[in-house]
Task: structure prediction
Amino acid sequence: MIVHVFDTPAQVARAAAAVFSAQILKKPDSVLGLATGGTPVDTYKELIKLHQDGILDFSQVTTFNLDEYEGLPTSHPESYVAFMKRNLFDHVNIKQSRLPDGLNKDHQKECAAYDEEIRQAGGVDLQLLGIGNNGHIGFNEPSDHFVYDTNLVDLTPSTIKANRRFFDSEDQVPRKALSMGIGTIMEARSILMIALGEGKAEVVQKMVEGDIDPQVPASILRAHKDVTVLLDRAAASKLSL
Ligand code: GLP
Result:
């Protein structure tokens, strides 16, 4: 795990966009794993700028997102489909993008199909991750074990509270989501994690310096051979580096 610390969130976003750019320039038909949440928004803005400036071409790129809420209409502005359209897909020329279908009532079938489609596409070349306050990646919540495949997840009260800011009230935050499993994420050839702000400092410290523990799902990333972590000073403030 390589950890880089930058002075500002803006620098983190530019560094993350640089990693994505290198990937796409090296392999124009890359398969990218994408993430939602507040953290990657500025990275997506940088990628859009690079596309608009004629530097990045996504025309052969395929993307798979980490997760999607269960049962939330795609027309809802906080569905992850809507988020991705607004923040990236509507502004670049990605060939094909896929998110788990949270409206498919046959969750098991949908999750199995999702993992199979990733395999058929050749696997994820570069997976972008944020980290939840409780250490989740995708929506893999703290647990006594790691779940391997894409699956239907019960969101924890702390995640529901954290995502409350995107909805009118806590009641409206979906209670379940379809998420790539830890195994799906770990199969990516390389992983780029970004974390910003003081609120993430404690969990970042646990991820980087604590034990590998399913109670801190992101700690499993230390067992992956190609993980780059980009932090701003605030998110890195509890590291003993
Ligand atoms: C959500 C997403 C995660 C994301 C996390 C952190 O729950 N499922 O993929 O990393 O929240 O979000 P934020 O970047 O807004 O802190």
Remarks:
- The two ends are 13 Å apart (CA to CA).
- Residues 35-39, 66-67, 130-132, 138-139, 159, 163 surround GLP (CB under 6 Å).
